[in-house]
Design a protein that fits this description.
single chain, Pnp Oxidase, Chain A, two-stranded antiparallel ribbon, 5 helices, 11 strands
């Protein structure tokens, strides 16, 4: 075994796929790339995510208390990285990257038409924002493009490289303890 810096733990434990987060402020939609997020609980469905004052979307999220978490697939990899490399205070990212904003049902920020899925969210708890930039978001509604052929998601390794979802191992018949959880 070779030691690596403890500060690189995120490179090993990245909890989920890279996502895009949409917010809206003063009638203007923005989108950012986010890698630091995790499921916190099943019901109500809570998602923890780190969005800090260094992100242009931070102020819009704090003021509106709502956002959309959009899940892109591997065919959008370069766009996802490019979105993360510019700021919404200088550019309209929907226009620049040719993204289709779709109306959400319960929140103001738009869904992203090119993504596999979109989760409408509202802030459930912001008590950890000042200390950790950690928002707990409640998932209100999920939209999925069931006709989308590309379904593989991207997982950031923390150094500019990504792992792409691959083979699915189906062990549902063995997961007897978890059958009691709500669908």
């Amino acid at each position: 075994m070779k030691e690596m810096p403890a500060s690189h733990a995120y490179r090993l434990l990245e909890p989920g796929p890279i996502v895009l987060v949409t917010t809206a402020q003063n009638g203007k939609a923005n989108v950012m790339t986010m890698g630091f997020h995790m499921m916190v609980q099943h019901a109500p469905p809570l998602i923890g995510c780190v969005i800090g004052p260094w992100d242009h979307s931070y102020r819009a999220l704090c003021e509106s208390r709502e956002c959309v978490i959009a899940i892109p697939t591997v065919d959008l990899a370069r766009t996802v990285v490019d979105i993360g490399n510019c700021s919404g205070d200088k550019v309209d990212k929907f226009e620049k990257f040719g993204l289709s904003p779709l109306s959400a049902q319960d929140v103001g920020p738009p869904l992203i038409g090119e993504c596999l899925a979109n989760i409408e969210c509202r802030i459930a708890d912001d008590t950890m924002v000042e200390t950790y930039s950690l928002f707990l978001l409640e998932a209100l509604r999920i939209w999925i493009d069931s006709d989308r052929k590309e379904r593989r998601t991207l997982h950031h390794k923390g150094d500019g490289s990504f792992t792409v979802d691959g083979e699915v191992v189906d062990l549902r018949e063995r997961m007897v303890k978890w059958r009691q959880l709500p669908d």
